[in-house]
């Protein structure tokens, strides 16, 4: 390797160079590659007879455990007869012969031959040791990053069942899932995204449970992702969805390991990314967004009633504002006389038509919802509740909105909170407004047309090739019954065994 470094520009151009035999050259290259990185530490030290041989450790102080660095350095300085031979002071030749011919002493130590691997190892939390006179570097894993402890799921709280959630550490999440599903049929495939981030990503599936065509389609979708910067597992959604402009979610997320395991048993594919606490699940169907793992922790009657309650909440959140607008504007004869007189009495003095009134109140409600999410948790809920009460009362007293409209908007918002999956609630927030405009323009006919268009869109939608409206379209009576009525645990387990036996290994 040329040793004249003055003719080479500083920066990443050196990343493709081989490690030099001269220690000073290696230190110079590392300083240029990590220029202006204040957390890069370069420690020079000696080893061997009379400590006359030179070496240095290079690592990022913000990633590395200093105790493990010191242990690794002392191990190299104190190599004795049980490692190399009958000498108490290792020489350079013995050091090279040991590592190049006998291999590293532990799996966490690697031999690095070029600076591209050296840079990647330093960024992964390795201590890299350069030895004067040797054109290889030693890398020892010493990563030490603070981890968030396992806590209750934030987005999926539960009363009955496990209370553990996934965290930002990928290995911990996989370990929890493997501990719940102890079978060698559970497969995990690792790969690393490219670009600047270099994020570790993994997808898992249960052999014999997942459809081979679905697994092959998933793999083909993520083929081009290796060169992209992936910050969170939700970034994978852009590659997996078939209709990017659809408001309906085509994957779902969970922070519950038991939900991820249940999805694997049903033949789903899960994906995780290092640094992301969420688990992506695909393919999905429309009815799955009304199902939670908690349904199977209670009695069948109660769980079935709760599932029907969620479906009712979906209809209310989607259609209640537009239905009120259509009835009060075009179809007042359908409202009972006493109720109609009460509505007319509350609307007396309101300067806006029902459509404008609904838009104003929906805007205020969405604003309060976002403010409650962004504010610090101790005051967020209090501000959102007090704000809703104050604004609602002020709107009624100033005759900007009627009490009935405030009730309609409040019920709509509460119904959207009853849905288990947040991304489905976002779809309802988007679809509500086109239906409101159709209702204000054409009344009940507009709602019917909008509902038919939504249904047609759902019938054409697929998730990894699977029909989104399955088991309704195409119709599968047994699965459709299980979507509405919670099956017994015994039937659910027997159904899983039957599906696993029918599918060949992927």
Would you mind describing this structure in some detail?
With 506 residues, this protein is of the alpha+beta class. The protein has three domains: 5-141, no CATH class; 170-284, no CATH class; 296-484, no CATH class. Helix content is 46%, strand content 12%. The chain has 17 helices and twelve strands. The strands form three sheets. It has a five-stranded antiparallel beta sheet, sandwiched between helices. α11 (354-374) packs antiparallel against α14 (422-442). The longest helix has 30 residues, at 300-329. It starts with 22 loop residues before the first helix and ends with a helix.
Count the domains: 3
Class of secondary structure makeup: alpha+beta
Gyration radius (Cα, Å) is 31 Å
Could you give the order of the helices and strands? HEEHHEHEEHEEHHEHEEHHHHHHHEEHH
| Biggest β-sheet description | 5 strands, antiparallel
How many helical elements? 17
Our measurement of the CA-to-CA distance between the termini, rounded to an integer number of angstroms, reads 47 Å
Q: Approximately what portion of the residues adopt beta-strand conformation?
A: 5-15%
Tertiary shape:
elongated
Number of strands: 12
Helix content: 40-55%
Low-pLDDT residue spans = 1-12, 80-87
Average pLDDT works out at: 82
